[in-house]
Fold this protein.
Amino acid sequence: MKNKKVLVLIIIGIILDRISKIIISINLKENQVIKVIGNFFRISYMKNTGAAWSMLEGKQLLLIIISILFLIFMIMTVIKDKRNTKFNILGYSFIIGGIIGNLIDRIIYKYVIDFLSFKIINYYFPVFNIADMLIVFGAIFFISDILLEGREEGPIAVEYKEFEEKVHGKNSSRKRKS
């Protein structure tokens, strides 16, 4: 059941990434900028031939190989991992979906389409895309799952249980949903 959920979320992530990149590439010219929220948030169509922060710029074959190897590792890990938590499912799904989204660009175009641009105070954050967001959020979910591994209940669940006991008494017949 977990693997089906992961697969469905991967497909949704890839579709969202592909649709967003197609819309951008059809409607904007390279390096064109549209201000959405002043200087804070802009749509900026960029062709990134590197990885994050343009690292390994122009090394598409190396980036494709690294992506495929990491993708294989993640798929093997999700198959072997028997845990079935929300964080676990979201982490694997988002990371794998994001890797595939950017890998498609690298193979087809020889670059990744980036378009989300933020300026925070005087710092322009590197332009990114939906696949990049999936990878970052996936890593956050995955790390959260690892940090909570082995605990019977996460810290939020423990606080909720303590709150419920105060309100309804320690021997409350109310059952919490798992």
In short: Residues 173-178 have pLDDT under 50 and may be disordered. Residues 2 and 83 are 9 Å apart (CA to CA).
